[in-house]
Each structure stands twice: as structure tokens, then as C-alpha cells.
Design brief:
two-stranded antiparallel sheet, 51% helix
Length: 109
């Protein structure tokens, strides 16, 4: 996939000496610059966080923090066994001035 060149911004980082040495060793082994290694590591972390269900749930603007916390609590209490069963569960949330929150339609199978 071809990436469109984006504007870049120079930043300054303060890292532990031991971490810098470790990153330098790895970057040397991979024949890439330390800058490229750090950039790729940050991109990977950002992508992983953005794809995390709980993080995405926390970004839903129509849910209050309390609603999000209730849903997260319920999901965390589920066991692996619960997630393997085929079932549908609708979590009802309070109505706001714009109608029901989007979170009301959250269905788990």
C-alpha cells in the first residue's frame, strides 16, 4: 500500500540511557536508523491502542463516563467461556436529549 507523504514535526524525547542503547543495538541489527525504529514503534503502539475495543469504547462521545465504565466493568467480568457462547445481550442506557445513546445498541455474541 502506498502511503501519502505527511508533514512531519520534529520533537525531542528524553529516554533512559539503557533504553537508548537497547534501541540502538536493535536498529543496528535491523539496518535502520534509530529514528526510523522509534517512529515505527510509536506508530505500532498508536495503531494497537486505536484498535483496542476498550479504548474505542471510551471514545464514543454519546456515552457518559459512567455508562462507559459500566459497560467496561461488565465486559471485564465476562469469562472466556462467556465469549465463546453465541448469545445476544443488549445493554440499555439512559435516554438523553438527542435520543438513546449509541452505546445502547452494543450487542455481544
Amino acid at each position: 500500500m502506498l502511503k501519502i507523504a505527511e508533514e512531519k514535526k520534529i520533537i525531542s524525547l528524553r529516554l533512559n540511557v539503557s533504553l537508548v542503547e537497547e534501541v540502538n543495538k536493535i536498529a543496528d541489527k535491523l539496518s535502520i536508523s534509530m529514528t526510523d525504529f522509534i517512529r515505527k514503534a510509536i506508530e505500532k503502539e498508536v495503531e494497537e491502542i486505536n484498535n483496542d475495543f476498550f479504548f474505542r469504547l471510551s471514545q464514543v462521545e454519546y456515552c457518559s463516563e459512567e455508562e462507559s465504565n459500566n459497560i467496561i466493568k461488565e465486559l471485564k467480568e465476562m469469562k472466556e467461556e462467556d465469549l465463546k457462547k453465541t448469545k445476544r445481550k443488549i445493554i440499555s442506557l439512559k435516554k438523553n436529549n438527542r435520543g438513546y445513546s449509541k452505546c445502547q445498541q452494543l450487542k455481544m455474541k
